[in-house]
From TrEMBL:
PANTHER family: ALIPHATIC SULFONATES-BINDING PROTEIN-RELATED (PTHR30024), TAURINE-BINDING PERIPLASMIC PROTEIN (PTHR30024:SF47). Its main location: periplasm. Belongs to the bacterial solute-binding protein SsuA/TauA family. Pfam families: NMT1_2. This is NitT/TauT family transport system substrate-binding protein. Keywords: Signal. Coiled coil: none annotated.
């Protein structure tokens, strides 16, 4: 009698438990890691504007891209906001990484800021240059030197996290830093000169959201909500710019006018931009990534090409 009752119960348990587990995963919290950068701010605007379910999506802010990468590698976050070169570096040892959204192109937001008496890149010879120990820092520095016919032997490289840039610059511990907003704005206030900007390398610095293949399978609804929330934020910025800037500026510790100027140094990518960037065999990010990979290989940042079309998942930008 016991066995006759137990077997149906056991069968029921085996059927229902996997369904329960699946439901639990689908409704679990999606953790999204970013550092401080105006190009990621629409994600936080989506949170404050009610476009994201706070029980299902948690934004996690880190001091630097290095910390974001570390958190993604050890699975502390499910999604990471990174530059394309950082993503390529990540794919080299995490091939299950997938790009699901392009957030922005840097068009002046990434810079080299020098002390008041330094007016050109050539004047950095023999000087101390602070740079974050990430693929982005190394990539921008390599392009700066390459375009000005210099090498790393011509300068003294000082590795430091981006949250150390302002203090090191003010204390004259470095002669220049490779940095980005909002630090750029703070350093200019202290007399810094912008002697190089990403306007000089158009289209080369792209920010993206990446996740893992298993997260796409387990937390698909949350990823869809996150991407749709991004596009809703861009609509809000377009339709009610003053209100949106007022919401975003305090988090970056800069004024509304400074944020407005900072956003002028990048292009936020809407759904149409993303479809062109990520969709199909003609996705424009492929050619950009190939060029970026070659520059990274030439400068010893990766050993060989690692990025391919398989590292793109455009389903979240292709439709709502």
């Amino acid at each position: 009698m016991f066995l006759r009752l137990t077997r149906p119960l056991l069968f029921l348990f085996l059927v229902i438990f996997p369904l329960f587990s699946c439901t639990h995963e689908q409704t679990g919290t999606l953790k999204v890691g970013t550092n401080v950068w105006p190009g990621y701010e629409p994600l936080y605007l989506a949170r404050s504007s009610g476009f994201l379910d706070l029980g299902r999506i948690k934004m996690v802010e880190f001091n630097s891209a290095s910390e974001v990468l570390s958190a993604f590698r050890n699975h502390s976050v499910d999604v990471a906001a990174l530059t394309l070169d950082e993503t390529i570096s990540l794919i080299a040892d995490r091939p299950d990484t997938r790009i699901i959204l392009g957030t922005d192109f840097s068009a002046g937001g990434d810079v080299v800021v020098a002390q008041t008496d330094i007016k050109s890149i050539q004047q950095l010879k023999g000087k101390k240059v602070g740079v974050e120990s990430t693929a982005l820092g190394a990539y921008v520095l390599s392009r700066v030197l390459e375009l000005n016919h210099l090498t790393t032997h011509d300068i003294q490289i000082v590795f430091m996290e981006v949250n150390q840039h302002t203090n090191a610059f003010i204390q004259h511990e470095v002669d220049a830093v490779v940095t980005f907003d909002p630090v750029k704005t703070q350093l200019v206030k202290h007399g810094g000169n912008i002697i190089f900007s990403s306007q000089q390398i158009p289209g080369e610095i792209i920010d993206v959201l990446v996740t893992r293949e298993d997260v796409i399978n387990k937390k698909h609804p949350q990823l869809k909500m996150l991407v749709n929330g991004w596009f809703e934020s861009l609509d809000l910025i377009t339709q009610k710019r003053a209100d949106a800037l007022q919401k975003m500026a305090p988090r970056l510790s800069i004024s509304v006018s400074e944020l407005d100027s900072a956003l002028g140094g990048l292009k936020l990518l809407d759904r149409a931009d993303n479809q062109q960037l990520l969709s199909g065999k003609q996705a424009t990010i492929i050619s950009t990534a190939n060029k970026t990979q070659q520059t990274m290989i030439s400068n010893g940042l990766v050993a060989q090409p690692v990025f391919g079309i398989e590292h793109i998942n455009s389903q979240f930008v292709d439709k709502k």
